[in-house]
Amino acid sequence: MADVYDRLFMMCKRRGIVYPAFEIYGGTAGLFDFGPLGAEIKRNIQNLWRSFYVLREGCAEIECPAITPFEVLKASGHVDEFTDLLVKCQTCGSSFRADHLVEESGYEGAADALDAVAIDGEIAARGIRCPECKSELGGATPMNLMFSTEIGPGSGRRGFLRPETAQGIFTNFGNLYRFFREKMPFGCVQLGRGYRNEISPRQGMLRMREFGMMEAEIFVDPLEKTHPRFCEVKNEMITLVPASTGRETGMTLGEAVSKGVIVNEALAYFMNFTKEFLFAAGIKEGLLRFRQHLPTEMAHYANDCWDAEIHSERFGWVECVGIADRSAYDVEAHMKSSGCDLSAMRRYDEPREIVRKRIIPDMKKMGPLFKGDAAKVKATLDGMDGEGVCGDVELDIDGKKYLVPSDSYRVEKVTEKTIGERFVPHVIEPSYGLDRIFYMIMEHAFEEGEKEGEPYTVTHLKPSIAPIKAGVFPLVSKDGLPELAFKIDRTLRSFGIQTCYDESGTIGRRYARMDEVGTPYCITIDHKSLEDGTVTVRERDTTGQERVKIEELPSFFSKNALGFF
Question: Is this prediction's pTM over 0.85?
């Protein structure tokens, strides 16, 4: 018998939720199409997420291009670091992701944290051969996962399809800092597509080559990694798997921070925020935990990172959200690479006098020496701290080297009045995989059973996530009932309530169709409706029914099916 993933996917395909992409051409691994109902479910998940981060948390939302210049991803480390280890069969030429083969052989631990030498050793020790033809495999080699492209024809700039949405936020830090009137902390979010050229996509919708991302970047002062509302959640219980023990443990957020299990309040706050969002979206309590990254698997940019893992009947514990303290890595990297100042100001309560050493250029000597570049060299020296500067000074400006002789400048001690000091912000990043969350919501909501001796499926989607909020059914297709039902259907749609008008088959069959796709309510218009202006509203999960006045339906559904909290 097919397992839950296969049965769920068959239902999703039949009901217009998810299809294999380009199926008439044989399909393409790692790519899926979202049908009419699936696209609506995704939008609802995104809008719920926005309600958390934009409305509740006050983050700004921006939208950046998916095509990203080489220089940006070189600076961020993706050009050099964004790789997986690939092995090829020496006979049939098939390619495989090396750590997956090791994991499937029974390896205990994080196989994706092993380097090429260790992977080759495990493959040899375990006698792992090609899954396709059982021949020997070649050595593991790193493969960059980004899709490369060219920006402009001919000798255009090299670029990539973005592997994450975060970099567009980091490169816009200066603009965002001014937008928030130079006040910290602040958050910015972006929702959109990411692209990763997976070596061997597997696990269906859990590993895709084009996928949805919902990322928030919270810029904080490195000296104040707190959150103003942490006191409201410090007693919330959370299930953790610390790297130090590898075992599940429950504790309060306050306890986790005080013991140093979670490195700071800001990170802990957004871990709890993630928990709240996932439960609101339909993830079952008891099937969510937060696992800390091992030192060997920590991303190159992270001080600390926790994965929100959701349990799947088919796939076990699945990473769906990463909540990381990215330190100042990204902003510093883009400052260095671009030469632009992406720092923020830590303002003092009152102006302070500071003594510092300042470099004073001798322009009579520097002018003839550097000619048209003299002003650029002077500006660079003006911005430098003169402490420890002596002898000839070598500068790198926009990739060009300049040697400033020791006799063309002097260092003086000066007293200056300042209103604050500049610093490079740190970043707390909750990064959500939309498609994985989509699948997990569907699996957790999916219930199969029997009704009157026949198979019966109910998908218990939260009303805010359900693609259809109400089925609208005339009891019979005559006596003026279809006309009234159609009018009710149009009225609800005018209020932004997604409906499905259906007058085909028995009421039981119509209920079954709506239950299967997760519709929370069904409205039946009967002869009594013509008499007293009321209809029967049936609730999916309890199958309870109540009479509601027709004029009250928009407010009923706005309250029960559209609300996010």
Answer: yes
